[in-house]
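The record is kept unedited without comment:

——
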Amino acid sequence: MGVVIQIDGGRDPAETLEPMLALVSADMEAVNRIILDKAVSDVPLIPQLAHHLIDSGGKRLRPMLTIAAAKLVGYQGQGHVRLASTVEFMHTATLLHDDVVDESSTRRGKPTARLLWSNQASVLVGDFLLGQAFRMMVEVGSMPALKILSNAAAVIAEGEVMQLAAAKNTATTEDEYLAIINAKTAALFSAASEVGAAIAQRPADEQNALKSYGKNLGIAFQLVDDALDYSGDSARLGKSTGDDFREGKITLPVILCFRRGNEQERMFWKRTLTDGQIEDGDLEHAVALMKRHKAIEATLERARHYGAIATDALEIFPDSTPKRALDGVVAFCVSRSH
């Protein structure tokens, strides 16, 4: 069991998300209807497996960004709803693929699809969802949006390969790890935000601002996830703390702890993460090492840094309800404990 560290002494992080939830509520109902409609197939296994993950309680933060960004720039059409659904399908597909690559056993507190069905089925249904995502992109008819989201799909795949190459490698540097999460996680946050301005045909400076907002928000989001795996509350996380440790993932807290540790401590990380020889008490020892070297605090400090960059990226826009909602998402991501 990890040690729970209070990330932010302020208000409940969920409160910072309330402006966003209120802003996108009606459009997200439409997004959810589209998701249910597009997950249908004459092949029974496809909707069964897809709904296992779709219905598992994720916040659907990425499609919310698309809707809020479109509202921020005054978009008046309906294409943003379909593009938000596209973003969520892309995200769901990457989760299915990730769980196979990582050999994960739980996702949001439930057995992963690969355990309930198979690795092959998970990969193929993920491919089906990606196909549906591209269909929806085409239906919207915006070439700039298609370019942004198709580029993101390629970058995410590159990030997954980069992560695979770095798996269990304790020699991974912080710069290398940031490059991985920039591709694997931040690319979709970035595209989800940028596409909201692209569909409205807004000037390049506004599109680039939202692109920067999403990118830095995505990095901050992932770094907090990394910290929570060693310091969070299992009941609130919806997954077991220490999953990254048990799966041999090299994340930023590990990288910092490995660099700052002595040779004996580095041998511990090599035994557990590289060799996969995990014994009783090793997770607790890993958390103790992170506390000793302040690896969790340093990871969260970096997350707050990227969160501040995301907030600053929005400063070219005048004050508005959508802007305040997007600012609230940054506050949520860097202070959440679930």
